[in-house]
Amino acid sequence: MRLSLRKHGHSEEASLELWFTAKFLSILKEEFLMKKTLTAALTTALVVGAASTTFAAANPFSDVPADHWAYDAVAQLADDGVIEGYGDGTYRGQNEITRYEMAQMVAKAMAKEDQVNAQQKAMIDRLAAEFSEELNNLGVRVSNLESRIDNVKWTGKLQYEYTRTKYDGVDATTEHDLKFRLEPTATVNDHWKVKARLDAKWDTNNDTGKDGNVKLKRAYVAGHYGITDINAGLIPYYSEQGVVFDENLSGASVTVGADQTLSGTLVAGRKREGGEASNVQGVNITWRPTEEFTGAAEYYRASVSGEYNNIWGIGATYNIAKTAALNGGYWKNTTQNDSDINRAWNVQLSYKGAEQENMHSFGLFAAYRRLGEAVAVEPTFDAVKSGEKGWEVGGDYTFAKNIVGTLKYFNGRHITSDTKLNRFYGSLEYFF
């Protein structure tokens, strides 16, 4: 049966949205009772996100704010005789003007680029990038100017995370973390880019920094030649289904045929945890015979203090009717003999998924995971950790464009001690 949230207009969407918001707040209420300021801030953010319906682009006929830097730039160009101003040849700098009017002046200045000096040209280029949408509407091409103005693109997010873990017979522990992330991407040429990631994490329980102040998590060059992709430096690496690795390594990876029926990846790197370093080498072969099915096999050789571990794994994903997916896999460390820690498997059924750009989009999943600690080195999952096994369910929802909430719940046991545990994870992310 195909689930449709639009069967009765927007009522089901609104119900789901309000339920998601209410559920998130009710679970956090106890933990935040003594943190009134943070509770109010989070509540406001959720209500605003839930109530939003549209984000409009800048209106070309709205006034450019009086304190906008463009006024100074235009005034300077007007003084130099480059910008002619209004139709009567004057520039009335004391008056606010619309973005459309500003774009008209910039367009006239662009027509004189061969008559200006280097400083004036740089000023015109910056104005052209600022009012590119209005200039495009006027039929003025500015794409080349934008690429010259700024070949570094910035993305990032602000994320609040809540984690509550309850072990059998032990009082629950809670974590409240605030993470700020910046990810610059700089274009070097047609084949190479430089990418990086900077993370700052804050423990709001104690109002202290976590893992230091700001950490460089990634810094690498990414090359693309035909069907070959190369990463080198402090690189990200994600193994099949994220069971073995979702981590950053100092090293390099080469992928051939990423969009082909058959592709392969070689990776070699080093990771330091505390005072101990581990070396990792691996290979992943992925087969995509149809749009619906993907299969993969992988091997990793990891060493810590001279002790080598050989990890083998297979995985598969089957997409069902473009709205659901079933994936699963099995991994084993053939160097370790202890069956409690040398095996891992993962089975997950997913329905849809929240899309960052698409308000009201959502996703649901249910999974059983067993993550032996000699196999799951740095797994990707939020609610279940290495050395644990059990059921995990959850979902995510896009409250508004670039505002995504996530809830996950895990119920299971610690593999070696057989201790019962459950964990709740909640997250609210603001992307930019």
UniProtKB/TrEMBL annotation:
Name the chain's protein. SLH domain-containing protein
So which domain of life are we looking at?
Bacteria
Annotated transmembrane regions: none
Query: What does the organism's lineage look like at the top?
Result: Bacteria, Bacillati, Bacillota, Negativicutes, Selenomonadales
Which Gene3D superfamilies has this protein been placed in?
Capsule assembly protein Wzi, Porin
Source organism (scientific name) = Selenomonas sputigena (strain ATCC 35185 / DSM 20758 / CCUG 44933 / VPI D19B-28)
Question: Ranges for the SLH domain?
Answer: 57-120
PROSITE patterns linked: SLH (PS51272)
